[in-house]
Write a structure and sequence with these properties.
β1 and β2 form a beta hairpin. The protein folds into 3 domains: 154 residues, ATPase, nucleotide binding domain (Nucleotidyltransferase, domain 5, 2-Layer Sandwich), CATH 3.30.420.40; 150 residues, Nucleotidyltransferase, domain 5; 198 residues, Carbamoyltransferase, C-terminal domain (DHBP synthase, Alpha-Beta Complex). It is an alpha/beta fold. Helices cover 37% and strands 19% of the residues. The strands form 4 sheets. Strands 13-21-20-14-15-19-16-18-17 form a 9-stranded mixed sheet, with helices on both faces. Strands 3-2-1-4-5 form a 5-stranded mixed sheet. A 5-stranded mixed sheet has the order 8-7-6-11-12, sandwiched between helices. 50% of the residues are buried.
Length: 562
């Protein structure tokens, strides 16, 4: 049985294909259109799913969509009525898109995809819940879904048991922790649904000195339930996330190109602190309702890796699973899996411990590409490539690393990565210059799972974090060894690597460890500012040519600018 899951029309549109409950392939639309966080209907991603599986739409049994469009449209109409006449301008601007495409999902699937079989619509937060629980290793788990907004729901507490997912409680729009965080993201001059992680990084340079003011705009109960004071927000009725009262409270907003002041850093630290406070109140309430030590989290707020790293010390949960993408792209997988378990008698679930579900390419085409671009190159086997790359990293070179199948989601996990030696603090500045990024932004580390406890304060010796969704404090004795990836608050976002998850990448880090004594390398996505991660060899070569990257390793080919 083939089921295709689709998410579209908000951000990070994607398509996935499962067969008998097992994930075969998964693609985000942005990788093909080259529009970051592309929200258009994922025609390209769908086509790549079909090509990878060597099937066509006639072979698909069900298409499962990640939310209920009519219910979402109902919420938009209700919001317009409640906020009229202030919302008239935004309502009129939104209507053509809604009446043109967003509400006509069945028409698109039937007419443009020529699909004649079953279509299911799974509620947005249920898709999120399924995307984290079904791929997890847990038979039973407490589940939290938390984001900006789905149809009405912004927060959901659930219980997972076998293949059943049951709701416990929820919070609805306009009260949203995701929208609260995004309001501050916009206020600090960043882009909503794109730059929230930048604000999280900025907050490390500040102090939560604005917490008293933040407390005026949101009321929080002991169980973590909350209400926004809507007089401070404008996202229901205008094109601006905040109101004039918000400005009166926090001062003038930062414009996109303004320099960062201490006020901006302190505001970022304050909203991060408030977010964590609410997050942990909710999670502790969820534990008290389920008495289960296993936890699954999904939704955009689940990408707050700084908060995630504190779950183990701030809640009773002992085992936490957050599927890599966590946001709307993963909801396509949740929709597909939920549809499958609704009709299947199977109780068997596939644990997903890696995200390499995209395209791969063959060597012959790559050699043609390298010749076309007049690059000096050598062909080498895996052992030779590992030795060359590890030595280059040990020597302080910055390399492009393009191997295997593309990752699904926002993180480069060792197949579409820019890699560097983490030892010298100056390496952070060099890599940020290559990527044309703000200098305050930190980098993640890929670390051998067997050695993770030597460098980071993890909850258990062989802690698994394959998706790079957790930030942990760096061990005091290790901070000078990996100075380039130690953030201002002495933390680092980590990806653990084992032999089974990514054998080639594991071998690279292992060889680097043998050369330097450091079982960890700096890993960032292979892309430049404002562009998606590279998907094809052509894109990798293009970025290699227009940056100061020293070397490129693309399958069995090595190219150097020396």
């Amino acid at each position: 049985m083939y089921i295709m899951g689709i998410s579209a029309f908000y951000h990070d549109s994607s398509a996935v294909l499962i067969q008998d409950g097992n994930l075969i392939c998964a693609f985000e639309e942005e990788r093909f259109t080259r529009r970051k966080h592309d929200n258009s209907f994922p025609f390209s991603a769908i086509q790549h799913c079909l090509q990878y599986a060597r099937v066509d739409m006639n072979d698909i049994d069900t298409v499962s969509y990640y939310e209920k469009p009519l219910l979402k449209f109902e919420r938009i109409l209700e919001t317009f009525v409640q906020t009229y006449p202030y919302s008239l301008k935004t309502f009129l601007k939104a209507m053509p898109e809604w009446l043109g495409e967003k509400i006509k999902i069945e028409h698109i699937i039937r007419k443009k995809l020529k699909f004649k079989k079953n279509i299911t619509y799974i509620p947005h937060h249920l898709s999120h819940a399924a995307s984290s629980f079904y791929p997890s290793p847990f038979k039973n788990a407490a589940i939290l879904t938390i984001d900006g907004v789905g149809e009405y729901q912004t927060t959901g507490l659930w219980r997972g048991d076998g293949t059943e997912i049951a709701p416990i409680s929820s919070i609805n729009f306009p009260h949203s922790l995701g929208l609260l965080y995004s309001t501050f993201t916009a206020f600090l001059g960043f882009q909503v649904n794109n730059d929230e992680y930048k604000m999280m990084g900025l907050g490390a340079y500040g102090k939560p000195s604005y917490l008293q003011k933040v407390n005026k705009i949101i009321t929080v109960k002991k169980d973590g339930s909350f209400q926004l004071n809507m007089k401070y927000f404008g996202f229901r009725e205008s094109f601006q996330m905040w109101s004039q009262e918000f400005e009166d409270l926090f001062g003038k907003p930062r414009k996109n190109n303004d320099r960062f002041t201490q006020r901006h850093k302190d505001i970022a630290a304050s909203i991060q602190a408030k977010t964590e406070e609410i997050y942990f109140l909710i999670l502790n309430h969820l534990y008290n309702n389920t008495l289960c030590e296993n936890l699954c989290i999904s939704g955009g707020v689940a990408l707050n890796s700084l908060a995630n790293g504190k779950i183990y010390e701030r809640t009773p949960f002992k085992h936490v699973y957050i599927f890599g993408p966590a946001g709307d792209s993963a909801a396509a997988l949740g929709a597909a899996l939920y549809a499958y378990f609704r009709v299947s008698t199977s109780k068997s679930r596939e644990k997903i411990s890696h995200l390499y579900f995209g395209n791969s390419y063959n060597n012959s085409n790559i050699e043609i590409l390298l010749k076309k671009n007049k690059l000096n190159y050598e062909k080498c086997n895996d052992t030779e490539m590992i030795q060359k790359a590890a030595q280059a990293l040990a020597d302080g070179k910055i390399i492009g690393w393009f191997q295997g199948r593309m990752e699904f989601g926002p993180r480069a996990l060792g197949n579409r990565s820019i890699l560097a030696n983490p030892q010298k603090k100056s390496m952070k500045e060099k890599v940020n210059v290559i990527k044309i990024r703000e200098q305050f932004r930190p980098f993640a580390g890929s670390v051998l799972q067997d050695n993770v406890h030597e460098l980071f304060k993890v909850p258990e010796k062989n802690h698994e974090s394959p998706f790079m969704n957790f930030v942990f404090e760096v061990q005091p004795g290790a901070r000078s060894k990996i100075a380039a990836i130690v953030h201002a608050d002495n933390t680092c976002r980590i990806q653990t690597i084992s032999k089974t998850q990514n054998p080639l990448y594991y071998r690279l880090i292992k060889r680097f460890y043998e050369l330097t004594g450091i079982p960890c390398i700096l890993n960032t996505s292979f892309n430049l500012k404002s562009e998606p991660i590279v998907e094809s060899p052509e894109q990798a070569v293009e970025d290699f040519n227009k940056t100061s990257l020293d070397e490129l390793y693309i399958y069995h080919y090595y190219s150097s600018k020396d």
